[in-house]
Write a structure and sequence with these properties.
313 residues; TIM Barrel; 2 domains; eight-stranded parallel beta sheet; three-stranded antiparallel beta sheet; 11 strands
């Protein structure tokens, strides 16, 4: 398939695996890239030396392009960027911060830069910073996303109206059907997180994967807007948060309740009770753990069949 994103990233299919903390290591990234998509290493849960190890192992396990996602609020951002430049990573996805700080530095080293946005204001800032493409992440997505609660299928045509860069739709996409719908609305590719969380190669704990597959509609919620908005599974930890909100907890009290390492405990170590379990709304449609290659193949097969049927109408 040939379009703006496949050309920009030099990949076969316009499917990007999201760079998710605690789930997106070199095994998942290399598997997706080998299947024809773009695998992304999630650096948000890694110290710089660990990131370097994952980059090197990913390169050893795929001859195709891959990327690194860097949340710009991380205390390791400077060190991560140094590692990325030294290791000659071809593509970087930045998120949760000001793209103008790093975009030109990365581009000066011939690195393609993509920034994640959730509204028109941030999209225009990213364009001004000189990014090569945008990920338009809607309210349905797992993990950290926008405060506006704009759904993916409202966000894509809205950004398309104001921006002429290649667009990648993210949030609520896990099938060829949803991929085709996103493309019709103006996306050039899709970024998929939740479905790849339950891939065999994902570094998420098996307890977490099984929990994701058991979810029904309404089992996730977007909360903690006072800190950084995050979509998570409703569990005992969330119930403590809910109680804190009912008691008019201050930002400091919410920070104290969240603490440190709660996402690691939940998604990587498998604590389903007190862990922070970040996942998207589309989880309620999933029911199987399978190889990343099977996920990519199934999505593309369904996409091509549906597109062919529509063209006949």
């Amino acid at each position: 398939m040939n379009n703006k994103i496949t050309q920009l990233f030099d990949i076969h299919y316009p499917i990007i695996q999201a760079g998710m903390v605690w789930c997106s290591g070199w095994r998942l990234a290399s598997a997706v890239s080998n299947a024809g998509g773009l695998g992304v290493i999630g650096s948000g849960s890694m110290k710089p030396d660990v990131l370097r190890e994952h980059i090197q192992k990913c390169r050893l396990n795929t001859s195709s392009n891959f990327a690194v996602n860097v949340p710009l609020f991380s205390s390791y951002t400077i060190d991560h960027m140094k590692v990325i430049i030294e290791e000659k990573v071809p593509i970087v996805f930045t998120s949760a911060g000001n793209p103008s700080i790093w975009t030109q530095k990365l581009k000066s080293h011939s690195i393609v830069v993509v920034h994640v946005i959730s509204n028109v204001k941030f999209a225009l800032k990213a364009v001004d910073a000189g990014v090569d493409a945008l990920v338009c992440e809607g309210f349905e997505a797992g993990g950290h996303n926008g405060r506006e609660e704009t759904t993916t299928f409202c966000l894509i045509p809205l950004i398309k109206k104001h921006v002429h860069l290649p667009l990648i739709a993210a949030g609520g996409i896990a099938s060829g059907k949803s991929m085709l719908a996103a493309m019709v609305l103006g996306a050039d590719a899709v970024q998929i997180g939740t479905r790849f969380v339950v891939a065999e190669e994902s570094s998420a704990h098996l307890n977490f994967k099984k929990k994701v597959l058991s979810l029904k509609d309404g089992d996730t919620v977007l909360t903690l807007k006072e800190l950084t908005p995050v979509r998570m599974i409703k569990n005992d930890f969330y119930n403590h948060l809910k109680e804190a909100y009912l008691n008019n907890a201050s930002v400091n009290e919410l920070e104290k309740l969240l603490g440190k390492g709660r996402a690691k405990n939940g998604m990587f170590l498998g604590d389903l009770i007190d862990g922070e379990l970040e996942i998207g709304q589309v989880s309620s449609l999933l029911d199987v753990i399978e190889p990343a290659s099977s996920i990519v193949e199934e999505i593309m097969r369904e996409y091509n069949i549906l597109k062919s049927e529509i063209m006949k109408l």
